[in-house]
Amino acid sequence: MLFNFRFLCRAGNAKKINIPLQQYVRRYGFGQPTETPVQLKGGDLLTLQNYTADEIKYLLWVASDLKERIKHKQEYLPLLQGKSLTMIFEKKSTRTRLSTETGFAVLGGYPSFLTAHDIHLGTNESITDTARVLSSMADAILARVYKQTDLELLAQEASIPVINGLSDSDHPVQILADYLTLQEHYGSLKGLTLSWIGDGNNVLNSIMMSASKFGMNLQVATPKGFEPDPTITKIAEEYSIKYGTKLFLTTDPLEAACGANVLITDTWISMGQEEEKQERLKAFQGYQITMQTGKVASPGWTFLHCLPRKPQEVDDEVFYSPQSLVFQEAENRKWTIMGVMVSLLTDYSPQLQRPVF
Question: Considering only Cβ atoms within 10 Å of each terminal Cβ, which end of the chain, N or C, has fewer?
Answer without folding.
Answer: C
